[in-house]
Amino acid sequence: MSEDINEMILKAKKGDKIATQKIIEKYTPFAIKTARSVYIKGYDIEDFIAVGQAAVIKAINIYDTHKSSAFTTYVFNTIKTEVYQVLRKNKKEASCCSLHSLNKDGFEFINTLVSDFNIEEDSIKREEKTILRAALKKLNEEEKEIIYWYFYHNRTLKDYGKFKGISYRSAIERKKKAVAKLKKYLKKLKFF
C-alpha cells in the first residue's frame, strides 16, 4: 500500500469506499489465517473470513490515528477478538470448537500449549525492521558504516577512530550526526 495507512484510515472514516476496500484487502490474509485456526460445526471458513473483514471495518472506525500504537497491531487484535466472540457465542460442547474450547478449569486449550512464538510481536518486529531498513538506506556510506560499527557489531568508537584514522572526539561527533539523521528519517516514516 503506497499511501500512508493513517491517511487511508482518515479517508475511510470519511466514507471513502476505495480506501476502506484497500485496508480490508491489506488485512484479509490475517483474517484468513485466523479463520483457518477455528472450527464450529455448521460454520465454514468464509463465515469467519467475513467476521474478520467486518472486524477490520470496526477497527477503522474505532482506531485513533493520533495514538502511538501501530494500526496493524490494533486490527490484528480486533480480528482475533471478533472471531473468538463468535466462538464463545456458539460453543455448546467442548467437541464443537477446536483448540479454543474451554477445558474443565475454564481455560482455552490453546493457552495450555507451550509456544514461545507470538504472531503479534513477530509482525511488529518485521514491520519495524522494514522501516529501519528504509531509514538506513537514506544515510550515506560513512553514516551507515558508523551505525553498523557501533550498534550492530557492538564495537567501540575508540576502535572506530583508530580504524578510520580520526580522533575519538571526531568519531563521537560522526556517530551523533548519523544517529540524528537516522532519527529524522524514522520520524518521517512514523517509526516512533
Descriptive account of the structure:
The protein is 68% helix and 0% strand. It is an all-alpha fold and 192 residues long. The protein has two domains: 5-113, Orthogonal Bundle (Rna Polymerase Sigma Factor, Chain: A), CATH 1.10.1740.10; 124-188, Arc Repressor Mutant, subunit A, CATH 1.10.10.10. The longest helix is centred in the last third of the chain and has 21 residues, at 168-188. The mean pLDDT is 83. Keywords: DNA-binding, Sigma factor, Transcription, Transcription regulation. It holds the Pfam family Sigma70_r2. This is Sigma-70 family RNA polymerase sigma factor. GO terms for molecular function: DNA binding; sigma factor activity. Residues 24-92, 135-184 form the RNA polymerase sigma-70 region domain.
How many beta-strand segments? 0
Shape type? elongated
**How far is the N terminus from the C terminus?**
20 Å
Q: Give the SSE order as H and E letters.
A: HHHHHHHHH
Number of domains: 2
Major sheet size, sense and barrel closure: none
Global Rg: 23 Å
CATH superfamily of the largest domain: RNA polymerase sigma factor, region 2, helix turn helix motif
Helicity range:
55-70%
**Which CATH architecture of the largest domain is right?**
Orthogonal Bundle
As a percent range, the share of strand residues is under 5%
Sheet/helix structural class: mainly alpha
CATH class of the largest domain: Mainly Alpha
CATH topology of the largest domain: Rna Polymerase Sigma Factor, Chain: A
Whole-number average pLDDT? 83
| Uncertain runs | none
Keywords: DNA-binding, Sigma factor, Transcription, Transcription regulation
GO molecular function: DNA binding; sigma factor activity
Organism: Clostridium thailandense
Protein name: Sigma-70 family RNA polymerase sigma factor
